[in-house]
Each structure stands twice: as C-alpha cells, then as structure tokens.
Known about the structure:
The chain is of the alpha+beta class. The chain has helices spanning 53-65, 68-85, 93-109, 119-125, 127-144, 150-163, 172-193, 202-219, 229-238, 240-253, 259-273; strands spanning 2-8, 11-15, 21-25, 46-48. A four-stranded antiparallel beta sheet has the order 1-2-3-4. A hairpin with a 5-residue loop joins strand 2 and strand 3. The chain is elongated.
Amino acid sequence: MVIKKIFNNNAILAKDSEKNEIVVMGRGIGFKKNVGDKLDENLIEKTFILKQKDASEKFKLLLEDIPTEHVSLCYDIIEYAKNILGVELNDYIYVTLTDHISYTLKLFDEGLNRPNPLIWEIKKFYSKEFEIGLKALEFIESETEKKLPEDEACNIALHLINAQVNKKGNNVKDIAKQAKMIQDILNIVKYTYNIELDEKSLNYERFVTHLRFFFQRLNKEEKIENEDDFLLKQIKVKYKKAYECMLKIQTYLNKDLSDEEQLYLTIHIQRVTHR
Length: 275
C-alpha cells in the first residue's frame, strides 16, 4: 500500500494494489512519512474500508478535525456492536457516532450534559442496543477517564438503531407504510380529542418516536410479556379518554396488543393531548 494522505502521525489515507482508498491507523504510522511512500503494514492497528463514497469522504474530513484517539475509540465500540448485534451496519455509523462521541466529550469537558428524552423507549424496546451503549460508556471511561451519564448510552443506542441495515422492515416500501400508519394514528388522536397536536412539543416527539419503534417491533414480530396488568387497570380509570382512544388505534391496527403495549400507548396519548 502507498500513502496518499497523512492526517497525523497515527492516521493516514492509503491506496492498495487495486487502487482502493483505505484509512488506516496505528501508532506512528505516519511519522516522518511523505505522500507516495510505501506504507509499513506492520504498523497497522485499525483499518477503515468504507464502501459508500459519501460516507468515506465525510469520514476523511472528520479525521482532520477530531482527535485520533476518539476515532480509535469509536472503532472499538462499532466493532463490539457488530459482534453483539450480528447485523450489518451502515458505513455512516463511523461518521455519525464518531462525530457525536467526540462532541459529547468536548461538552463534558465544558460541564455540559444533554439529557435524552427517549431513554424510556430505548431501554424498553431496544434493550440490546442500550446494553451496548452502556458497554460503550465503559470503553469511554477506560480510555478517557470520563464517566458519561446513562443518557449517553441511549444516544449511542439510537445511532446503532439508525445504522442497522438489511433488517426486516427496513426497506423503502415498509418505511413509507409506517409513515402513513403513524400519520393515521396521529389523526385518530386529533379527531378523538378534536384538537391540533403541538408538533414542536417534546411529548409529540416522544409519541412519534414510540410509534416508529412500535411498528419496527411489530414487523419483527417481537412480543413483550404482559407485566403491567395492575398498572393498566389503574390507567384505564385515571386516563379514561386516552384509553378509549388507544382502543380505537388497536381497532385500526386490527391487532390485539399486549397489556404493556396498551399501557404505553395510553400514557403517550395522555401526554401528547395535555400541554
């Protein structure tokens, strides 16, 4: 391999024998080297082969602005996630997650924290991705000695959810169908209460996000054990109109929902209709 560009002493852009561009990292791999020099492949520790051209270009720009140790750290997190999830991840994860974690560490140094309002949904419906997020926090603390809050595990989980490809329900046709169904459900809520929903509100964002995860889970035919029968009975009485609205949604879906699904939908309806 021949060096095409040197980002710093520990990261370079190389070209292999088939003229493919590859980002490689390793301690001192670019030290006292010049463009056109032959790469010492014994120094390679991490290799990035991004097949999507746009993702590759953005990743190269990222390397010019972000500390190499952050890039290396995110590489380890992504590789760990791939092994645990056993699915293909979109190349953009190397751009989006790396940029996110680097910026989060910068904010942490400034004493700033960004709470994630979706942590409830993520922990409940994407527990595997959330657990990976928690493990990522351990990686980050081990490398940087910075203990990030649990909300950050949720942020990392969201990046992993968005990056998963070749999963059932992740094609254009199904996404369009889900978007229509979400809109239909929002209309059921609006007409039941005869109100316009505040689309800029946090509760609206939570409700829509819950519905997206809800449909993805239905597509994967995942079932949740009924654990909250007692809570549902209380909610039926306390939020009677929201519960009745949920039943209309269940009829629209033509599907018997678990007690837990009914509970969460009812609570979201109550929140989104009460400002």
